[in-house]
Every structure is written in C-alpha cells, then in structure tokens.
Amino acid sequence: QAKKLGGNRVKFYSNDMNHQAMFRIELESYLRKALEKNEFFLCYQPFIDIQSKRVIGAEALIRWDHPKLGLVSPAEFIPLAEETGLITDIGVWVLRSACLEAKRWHEIGIGDMTISVNVSAHQFQQPTFIQEVKKALMASGLEPSYLQLELTESVMLRNATYSIAVMKELQELGVQLSVDDFGTGYSSLSYLRDLPINNLKIDRSFIKNLRYDSKDVAIVHAIVTMGKGLNLKVIAEGIESEEQLQLLETLSCDVAQGYHLSKPRGQEEFEKFIKESLMSFI
Ligand code: C2E
Ligand code: MG
Ligand code: MG
Ligand code: MG
Q: Where would one find the signal peptide in this protein (predicted)?
C-alpha cells in the first residue's frame, strides 16, 4: 500500500524528496481546513444481493474536492488524516452524514437499505468512538441494524482485548460489523472465532483475476464455505465482469459490489440508480 501511495505521488509531483515533503505539509494544511470549508462529500457504492439481484445497501466512500488540487483520493489523504489525528473529526462527519443519508433513503421509500461506513485504526481506538456511533444513530433516527461498520484485520487486532470489548458493545447496540479487505492481513484465522463479526468482505485482489480455472476460485470457495460455517455473510468486492458475478453466484457468495454493478456515485446519481433498479430489478 505504501508503495502504491508513493507511486501516485511521483506521478503527480516531481520525485524530488523536498517536493514530496513540501507537498505533504501543504496537503496537511489543506486537510485541516477541509471540514470547515465543506470540501468533503460522500459517494455510495451499492451492495447487491447475488440471489435476488436487489440492491440491499451501499458503502459510503469519502471524497475530497479541493479547489486547487481537485479530487484527492482517500487512499492518499486517509493515511495522512490518521497520522495527524484529523481522522477523528472527519470520521465523525462521515458517520453522521452516512446515517442521515440512509435514514433519508428509508423515508423517501427507496428501500430499507443498509449503510456501510469505513472505520480506520485511530478512529476506532478513540475512547469516544462508541459515543460517536450512538450520537450519529440518535441524530439521524436510523435503526442501528441498518448501520454496518467496516474494519480491517489490522484495525481489529491492534489491541485485541480492547477491540473485542468495543465490538461487543457495538453489536449489542444492534450495529453490524464487517471485516474489510479480508484475506490480505497477516493474522491467523483464530480471530474469526474470538471477534464478534457479521460479514466478511473478500478483498478485491482475489476477485480481480477470478476465472473458472484460477487458483482464486479455490480461495474464494474456501472463504465462502468458511463464512457459511461461521454464520457470516460473505461479500465480494471489486467485481468488474459478468463472468466474475456468475462465478460468485455459483460459489454461493451472498453479496456483490464492484464497478460491473455500479461505481461509487454521488448522492443524486445514487438515488437515481436505486429508483431505476427498483423498476428493472437490474
Ligand atoms: P475500501 O473500503 O476497501 O473500498 C473499496 C475501494 O475499491 C474504493 O476505493 C472503491 O471505489 C474501489 N472499488 C470498488 N469497486 C471496484 C472495482 O470493481 N474495481 C476497482 N479497481 N476498484 C473498485 P476508494 O473510494 O478510492 O477508497 C479507497 C479506500 O479508502 C477504501 O478502501 C477505504 O479503506 C478508504 N476510505 C474510503 N472512504 C473512507 C471513509 O469514509 N473513512 C475511512 N476511514 N476510510 C475510507
Ligand atoms: Mg470498505
Ligand atoms: Mg475493501
Ligand atoms: Mg481496500
């Protein structure tokens, strides 16, 4: 991941170290003001139930539109927000906005959809995190079972005992928990027994080259089988072709997400997409 980040920066700016350091400082100062300047917005990428082909929810993905830099990828600024602690306020904004939006979907009758929110390490470790989740639910009036939180293995396992306690409390509230980027961490599988989770999101690196004759089929099959045995819903992310979707259906994967179904869309575009999908069942 660090490699990928570095790669991006070199493309955008000179590979001179000084320039990179300068850019980082500049980026940080822009990031500090981004919230108050209203430069963030959320995109929504639908989750499709593979059996019924219905949209059952969406993942909220943050976007930063800076007047000078243009759109900055979250892969670029979320790590910086983590390092600087700015993620705490940004995370609160994402949670609140996402819950409000999901509640609005319910109210305007475009389906009882779940909203899935990414949570990063620093944000999750904050002692105020549970309180912030409760506040976002209360302020929006969203039923907790319609909120899903996405945590990566490294986020959950950084401080496992503490994490388990927080996750249990979140589940007691009724919130759903997903393991994001499943299969890319270095941890043993034992945490699947010990941590309270509801969903596994198979990382898109296993889906990218998924074909009938690939090793990835064996891996995805094993993950789906294990997920079923553990009573977890299995979600595949990064589906880019019909062949992959059909293969996942054959493998009994529960939920699909990816460009083939829909790219992340802004609020209005997403709403339009949902309304159209309600008429055509996709
Ligand atoms: P993620 O949570 O694993 O999200 C999936 C990423 O894959 C998204 O990139 C999405 O746009 C992209 N994607 C979806 N379908 C496809 C596909 O079919 N092919 C390909 N090649 N890519 C696909 P995005 O939006 O740039 O986000 C990148 C990462 O930034 C996310 O990975 C997540 O870790 C983080 N992130 C995004 N929004 C937030 C947020 O609100 N809070 C936090 N803490 N992290 C966020
Ligand atoms: Mg995610
Ligand atoms: Mg992911
Ligand atoms: Mg990812």
A: none
Distance 204 CA to ligand 3 centre (A): 7
Q: How far is the CA of 237 from the centre of ligand 1 (A)?
A: 10
Which residue type sits at 118? N
Q: For the stretch 103-139, what's the b/e string if a residue is b when 16 or more beta carbons lie within 10 angstroms of its beta carbon?
A: bebbeeebbebbbbbbbbebbbebeebbebbeebbee
Chain length of the chain: 282
The closest alpha carbon to 240, from 211, 214, 200, belongs to 211
Residues around ion ligand 2, judged by CB within 5 A, are 118, 150, 180
pTM: 0.93
Give ipTM to 2 decimals: 0.98
The CB-side HSE value for 156 (13 A sphere, CA atoms) comes to 27
For 94-126, write each residue's pLDDT tens digit.
999 999 999 999 999 988 899 999 999 999 999
> What torsion do the CA atoms of 51, 53, 54, 57 make, to the nearest 10 degrees?
80
Residue linked to tokens 């909120």: 147
